[in-house]
Amino acid sequence: MLRFIASRLLQGLFVLFALYTITFFLAKAMPGEPFTTEKNLSEESKSYQRALYGLDKPLLHQYLIYPKNIITEGSLAVSTSKGRPVKDIISQSFKVSVILGLSALGIAICIGVPIGMISAVRKNSWVDWGGMTIAMIGICVPAFTIGPLLQIFIAANLPGIKVAGWGNPQDILLPAITLGLSTAAYLARLTRGGMLEILSQDYIRTARAKGIPASKVIMRHALRGGILPSVAFIGPAFAALISGSFIVETIFQVPGMGQHFVNAVISRDEFLLLGVALFFGVLIVIMNLAADLLTGILDPRVRITGDSSR
């Protein structure tokens, strides 16, 4: 198990290194500079700002000093557009994104896994075709279509549900449903595929031949192996729900982290862009590791081979 964890951590460090390198040079390649605003600043003012944020140093020095400050000081630098530490900006909005992401993931699991299980058990029946059709619709219909439809048909007609805003517990419902539906569709298809593979195994046929009730065969023998693809998907899916929620946050006016990606690019705020990208990178690595560990618990072969796709 320790070797399994160590290998995953090394892979995660390599991913973070690649992510930092790509993001750093892409940020440098953006046209303009952070201090280009509507106000026509003098060249002296711009030079002072560059020196203040260390942007006057050689490119290699900037590339090396940023991760060094993260390791030695825990600093993600200061946002050039907001004038605040990037760490404070992230911590303020991260709580909102976590609440929204967890709610969306819970909805996705509660919808997707049962649909996938039922479709696998009732293979090639109208239940199977109907469930997979709904899943395909969930994959194809984008969030910017689902969100406004929920606002029009649910929020506008159901007392206590607001069209947009954040502050009350019920405000989580519509954006979480919007975010969670596409993930639920993927989970349904993955669960169906995993369950079909397990239900065709010899030990399942043996259990049925012994007269074990069908519900017991499914819940005790088939489910543990059948949900492995879904478990492996849940880790990165949760990170994606948090990092990819900008459209939903905009539709429902949720003050989450997704907004910082676009704002950082628009304002050419490379420190904010680097900080948010690395933060999400760390989150994805952690969630992937958690998913791999859970997969290893459910399937000991993963701990031996190190292949979570089995």
What's the topology here?
Layout: H1 2-29, H2 43-53, H3 59-73, H4 86-121, H5 126-140, H6 143-155, H7 173-199, H8 202-209, H9 214-226, H10 228-243, H11 246-252, H12 258-266, H13 270-298, H14 300-305
Radius of gyration: 24 Å
- The secondary-structure element order is HHHHHHHHHHHHHH
Structural class: mainly alpha
Helix content: over 70%
Instruction: Extract low-pLDDT stretches.
Output: none
Number of strands: 0
Largest sheet: none
Proportion of residues in extended strands:
under 5%
Distance between the termini: 17 Å
Average residue-wise pLDDT? 84
Number of DSSP helical runs: 14
Shape: globular
Could you characterize what this model shows?
The chain starts with a helix and ends in a 5-residue tail after the last helix. It has helices at 2-29, 43-53, 59-73, 86-121, 126-140, 143-155, 173-199, 202-209, 214-226, 228-243, 246-252, 258-266, 270-298, 300-305. It is built from 14 helices and no strands. The chain has 310 residues and is mostly helical. Helices cover 75% and strands 0% of the residues.
